[in-house]
Amino acid sequence: MVDMNVQAAKLELMQLILESNDSALLDSLRELLTSYKEEKVFIPLTPDENEAIDEGLEDFENRRLSDLDDFMKRLG
Q1: From the centroid of its chain, how far is CA 43?
Q2: Smallest Cα–Cα separation from 65: which of 11, 2, 5, 6?
Q3: More confident residue, 61 or 36
């Protein structure tokens, strides 16, 4: 059985990808995922990054979502 956090992360990523019309972003994601499969790149996360991911998953599980355009505006 697949871990539910993995499934939630996949769903969240799918939603963000489907909402994106940024071809450069999509190309970058494709390249990242392809190289990851080929090289098995492992980049350790900081405790702050892990916390941010956990918060994002909790938000997703509790349906506290925003669309990609709002997210990108907040990033500046």
Answers
A1: 15
A2: 11
A3: 61
Its pTM stands at 0.42
C-alpha span between 7 and 9 (Å, rounded): 5
What mean pLDDT value characterizes the chain? 83
Contacts of residues 1-8 at CB distance under 8 Å and 24 or more positions apart, as own/partner, are 5/57, 8/57, 8/60, 8/61
DSSP state of 62: T
Q: In the chain, which ranges are continuous DSSP H helix?
A: 4-19, 23-39, 47-61, 68-75
Task: Count other Cβ atoms within 10 Å, centred on residue 59.
Answer: 13
Residues 72 and 25 sit within 8 Å (Cβ to Cβ): no
